[in-house]
Each structure stands twice: as C-alpha cells, then as structure tokens.
C-alpha cells in the first residue's frame, strides 16, 4: 500500500448536506456531488477547500494555454492513489467556462457578458472529504502537500486528517441531539420574476434562423439557449440546498468563490479518465416527464422512437468520436451505448456513451484541449455551430455549458457538462436553458423544451425565494 495519502474513516458517515453547511465558509470550496445515486455514474461525492495554489485565467485568447501552471504542478506533485478509497483523493479541481474554448479555436467574442468572471479557475487541493454512497462510507483524505520531506508531509497530513475528523464528528454529535423536524427544510411557496434575454417570439425566430442555416448547408445542428435571470438575496448555499432536493442529479456541484458561485444539478458527464481510458456520455433528446406512471412509460417510448432525437444524438456521438480521435489510439474508440433512456426528476433523456484508449503521452489536460467545450452543447460541425451560437445568443455563456471537474494527483479525472446550472454574483442569478436544433426541429416545441428543462430549477427557487 502507498504511504500517502493518509486518511480516516468517519463513523457514522456524515451527510453531504450537513458537511457542506459545516465547511461552507472555507476558501474556494468545491463540492462534486452525486445526489441522484447510480453504481456506475452516481456513486461518489467529494468536497474540498483551501487549495494550496490556484490558477486563474480571466480572458481566454487563442493560443494561450490555460493549464500551463497546472501542468507544472502536476509534474511536481504526484501521488499513488489508495486502491480502497474513492477515486478522487486530492489533486486539481475547478471550473472551466464555456468561453474557454477560445483558447483552442478562433471564435467570435460575444457582444456582452452578464458577469465579470474568470474563464478558468483551477485549485490544487491537498485534502478532500470523499463519500462512497454504495457502501455508505465517508473518509477524510490528505497528502501533506506542499511539504516535500516525508516527515513533514506525514505530520501535515496527519494534522489535517485529525482536524477535519474532529469537526465532522463534533457536527455528527451535535446533529444527533436535534430532532429531524429541526433539520428539515421549511419551504416557502411564492411567485418571483424571471426574465429572459429573448421574448418568446424572438426565441422562436432564432430557432428558425438555426434551421435556415441547416437547410443552407452551414451546419447539421446547433445547441441554442436562452438566458433566464432573476434576483435574490439568498446565499449560494441556500439555493444549492434547495436545488439538490428538487432536481437531484448524478453530476451536481457547487463551486463557491469570494463573491460568486456556480450551482449545478447536471445529469451529464463530460470526460472521465481512468488509467489510459476515457469515456464521455452525451445527452441529446429530452421529454417532459408525466405524473401518471403509465403515461410516463409512453414518454420513454416516444423519445426512443423519435427520428429527430435519434438523429440529433447520433450526430453528436460522431462529433465526439472525432474529437477523441485526436488523443486516442487508432481503432480504440467504441460506442458501447447508443441512444439509451435515462429518466430524471422532471425530464427523460436520450443518452449515449463513447469510450477510447488514450495515446501513451496524453494527459487529462490534453483531452480537455481536444474536446472542450462538449459537443452535446455546441453542435456539428462544432466550430461553425459555435460561431452561429455566438451570433444568435449574443451574450457570453460563462460557466453554463462549461464544466466542473476533478483530476487527481495520479491523473484520474471526471467532469460534468454544466447544464441545469445557475451562476450567482451579488443578487443576480442566471440560469440558461437550451436544446439542440436540427432540420426537423419545430420552433414552438424547442421553446417548450427549454421550459421543461427549467422546471427543476424553478421549483428549487420557488421553495426559498422571498
């Protein structure tokens, strides 16, 4: 067994929600949470804070390597993972905004931005609290970085594990002395105003303009979104707590900075790297779920049999196969799942999976450079679709359609596509919603799809807004 990391199991296992509240004031807090549990892509959750070092890129420019510093740190700080612990045991984590794609492609700059946020924030986290929901277990894990001598590292890692363990155990004792009714959230139902950067008529018009581009032969499809906005004095922690209850997802997350935060209930994985293998799980095709179970089964059948949604999904699978071919060994890219059905709280999706074996000299950072932003939220061909998105949406997407991710000291990595995602700065709260447009698209149906996708977020906001 490797000497590092050091770790302690927390018994009884604390809840993610209670732990998040306990550490919510920590610096550069990142939570990557599987609220909706699944053995393959919803098994683990991770919370980290107080990074040793942080890399920021404010403005993406073509030719700039946003991971220059992180690559240096990756070479300097390495560790062998403990085989009996969850996959992220400390390392790098953070936010990649959609607009970071301008580092690798010559793309137009959007006309305006709602927020003044960095395009990329990556922290190097020495410690992490990790949950294995399948086993119902939780550990605190630490490496003792940035110390370099074994003795100093051992002392620092042991001290960190002791401090975090005591906080979690003290919290557990405190919470067990309270009644469940005291811990339960107290929702308040009321109306609040949501604005969009499009009127309904304007959105129908831009959907038709995408269809016109497709008919003209410019593209096969493009992912178009409208940006919804409201205002609130509630904290990011309060909003995320409500979001995870009303719209549970396997790739949920909270990334909290000094004056802004990203809150996500994403159902979609972007890139997962384990050893020399990578996988991605694009979502294309959506239907609103129905209350009556028997009727909901027809929703699944309707989505499964839709030629429009099948075509949309297959085109993105081909795009991702092409992206991964830049970094994978020839002949290793496979599609083990094509157009399978996955149901969530308010919608049902059509999901596929693409896997490949990486070339020997390729890192996670190289994979991101080859594939970012994800094809499921751009379109095909990718670059032309992104140009059209910039022209028609006009406002920068920011974190939306970017990614929250982790990459361990050993290179093991996982990441989400930031859909069903809110960005908060001051009292402003923005949550875009969108969908893929193909030649068979109907503008009215596409508008209604964005409404269905916003349902879980609206429910979360209604439960806390004053």
Automatic annotation (TrEMBL):
Record PANTHER family: AMINOBENZOATE/ANTHRANILATE SYNTHASE, AMINODEOXYCHORISMATE SYNTHASE COMPONENT 1
Organism lineage: Bacteria, Pseudomonadati, Planctomycetota, Planctomycetia, Planctomycetales
Top-level taxon in the UniProt lineage: Bacteria
Gene field: pabB
Enzyme Commission code: 2.6.1.85
Residue ranges of coiled coil: none
Protein keywords: Aminotransferase, Transferase
One Gene Ontology term from the biological process aspect of the record: L-tryptophan biosynthetic process
Location of the Anthranilate synthase component I N-terminal domain: 19-140
GO MF annotations in UniProt: 4-amino-4-deoxychorismate synthase activity
Descriptive protein name: aminodeoxychorismate synthase
Organism: Thalassoglobus polymorphus
Keyword hit for Transcription: no
Pfam family, one: Anth_synt_I_N
Domain Chorismate-utilising enzyme C-terminal: 200-453
Record field: transmembrane: none
